[in-house]
Design brief:
Length: about 110
């Protein structure tokens, strides 16, 4: 059963391939916003994965995310997704993305 409070942390290390310059979302060698959003969506999916029927998964319907500051190559990034409400099949999450220096992104999904 999916319930409020379920949470998961997904992590990654910033590589050249996950940088804005490589992904085409900017021209700097810093963690790309699309990579940050994908990591946060993965955390949301994993937060409820064990509560879903066999063979089921989630589908994102919208995300509202702020990318607050850059993280360079080599930084470890952690995205936490926490279920904040469940209305039928609609699940809402709070998202927080951090590196060793603190929060780099936050939002809802």
């Amino acid at each position: 059963m999916i319930k409020e409070g379920l949470s998961y942390i997904s992590s990654t290390v910033v590589t050249d391939e996950k940088c804005a310059a490589s992904m085409g979302s900017g021209n700097l060698m810093v963690f790309a916003t699309p990579a940050m959003i994908a990591l946060a969506e993965n955390a949301a999916m994993m937060a409820v994965a064990d509560s879903l029927p066999a063979g089921s998964t989630t589908v994102g319907g919208g995300i509202d995310m702020l990318h607050l500051r850059p993280s360079g190559v080599g930084a470890t990034i952690e995205a936490t997704a926490t279920v904040t409400s469940v209305e039928g099949r609609k699940i809402s999450y709070e998202l927080k993305v951090c590196d060793a220096n603190g929060v780099i992104g936050e939002g809802t999904h």
